[in-house]
Design goal:
alpha+beta, single chain, four-stranded antiparallel beta sheet, disordered N terminus, Rossmann fold, eight-stranded mixed beta sheet
Length: about 750
Amino acid sequence: MRKRRAVWTGVSVAIVMCCLFASRPARAAQSSRAPVAPPIAPVRPVTDTYFGTDLVDPYRYLETLTDPVVQAWMRQQDGYARAVLARLPGREALLHRIRAVEEAAPARVWGVVPLLDGSCLYLKRHPGEAVARLYRRDVSGAETLVADPARIPLAPAVRRKGRAGIHGFAVSPDGKYIAIGIVAGGDTVNGELHVLEVATGKEIGDVIPRIGAEAWWPSWLPDSKAIVYGRLQPLTAGAPATALRQNFRAYLHVLGTAPDLDRPVFGQGVGSLLLNPRDLAFVRVAPGSRYAVGVVGGGEFSAFYLAPVEALSTSSPSWRPVAGFADRVASVVVHDDDLYVLTAQDAPRARILRTDARQPNLAAAEILLPESPAVILGMQAAQDALYVSLLDAGVMRVQRVPYGAHPLPEEVRLPVQGTAHVGTDPRLPGAFLYLSAWTEAERIWRYDPVNRQVIDTHLEPLGPNDRPTAIASREVQVVSHDGTRVPLSIVFPTGMAPDGSHPTLLVGYGAYGASLRPAFEVARLAWHEQGGIYAVCHVRGGGEFGQEWHLAGKGPTKPNTWRDFIACAEYLTREGYTSSARLAGFGRSAGGILIGRALTERPNLFAAVLDTAGMSDMLRYVQTANGTVDSPEFGTVTTASGVETLLAMSAYHHVVDGTAYPAILLQTGSNDSVVEPSQMAKLAARLQAATISRKPVLLRVEYGSGHPAPSAGSAYEQRLADEWSFLLWQFGVPGFQL
């Protein structure tokens, strides 16, 4: 990395919004109590030296989130942001419309788990409810409530975080018990696991603390008397925050015993296992299987181990290695004594191998499903066959691969062309299919392998807005900066004229090999009714074209991610969908890298930017509790090349004083343990000090919330109303101007 000294002088006065209300004295008088400007963050530089290069961090102190001064500053930032947003003339009407379309559907259902008696369990949220509750439907169609997270008693330290929600659940093999993960206020590192009776919904007394949401998910042992689950280690006094997710291990809990007596059965230090402390280590036991699968890593590729299920009850289970990280294995599935392996080794778009679970040997494994132009995303084992999910030219397909020698894959004919998520039970034939598209809400179907039919389960009634005719979608390919063709999905009002006038929100992500697949959000109709376009740029770093697409936007190649995004933005303006005066970019979480660097590289390309819980100071992020787990994706500060890579993708370090930045709305959750709130706080302070455009730079904080994501309920609707009214204000749309 070229030696240099990056020093910011620190602007002493940064009242970005001092003239915001100057041209509207009447409205200013109506809001005399509203703050006139966001609070200025003093510059307190800290210098870090990385391999001979000095970097100055002017707002390092904002990382100390427990400091009362920092807390007060963030409260004032949030108060100012909400005061500005509340004054936008069209906001309340927009919020009313969002609520109307969002809550018109009778209910939303997901997470269906079939039981052997023909009934099923599922999560369901009714209109106006912020969180889902757990229900059971019997064979007659009668529905009963099993668990309401609001009524489950939690430890005071957990409860005070905020509203409780069900993070996931697992049913015992005999269908008698259910293990439920509960988190409060979005805090995914301080959850609790509760065991309830399915028939009555009553707790049986087993409560396990400190379940980390990344890999806590429990698996039941065949006798329905014990579970294996993941748990974070307790931190000792003075331990660094980075230790929180270190040495994550899987534990065995026998019903009726104290959690403190639970012993680790997989992970660092169990038997002869020697693992990287940063790697997650968890166990999966499929219903009816004789094998337990140990997983190390949990990212795009993991290391896998096998052990007999009964070995988990011994004092020291012996784990047989199946695949290491070098084998590039994404998942494994066991059916009887067959081990199915999904790998990208010598197949960037993945293939499926089959080997003997009793003596697994990948080198001699049979190729069950070879690589093809379609990307193999996943596989699920049912009683009758292996069900395989593929992504083909932006549309998902499902194949049924029968068990036995030399099977011929069968295409499952889907009634919806878009996204298809598959759910199976190894003890039952067929599969549940969750189907959606850009212009059609998700519904739940059941595939009958006997009649080769996809049948509507009617678990989720069709809402009046779930199949709108007023919007359409289009798939195009955009030539990026280096000639690569990048997919772009565009959802727009029907009859739209290509006159460059349409408010447009361009979204991207580009990390971990994750694909942005067709998805419909009914609330988005309120955006389209404003003439709005919603576009998704499938940038490199994602998995739309398999492993090669991911590697082309990972680590040192990360600049392709935001430059693909810039190319898509330019396409939308060039082709008459919109103009820079009515174009906004959006990124969330790892998508904060994309939007932050697109913002700092091309500030004149966007009228506004939304950055939610975004990674912005990567040199500091990878040193946080969650960042240490993510270093294989982004880089590390332990090498000079790693520092150079992280610096290139850090928006915080590319903000330039005296630049006319667009309007910016930054958002974070106070309980966010994935991307710490300081990432957004520091970027807000830096941008407020640097910009000369006199356009707003707002920091909105959701207190009692974790890592912000698409959700439901009042807080979600308020967030959308704030975001979209902010954009329409900045686009100059009549009815939203101060």
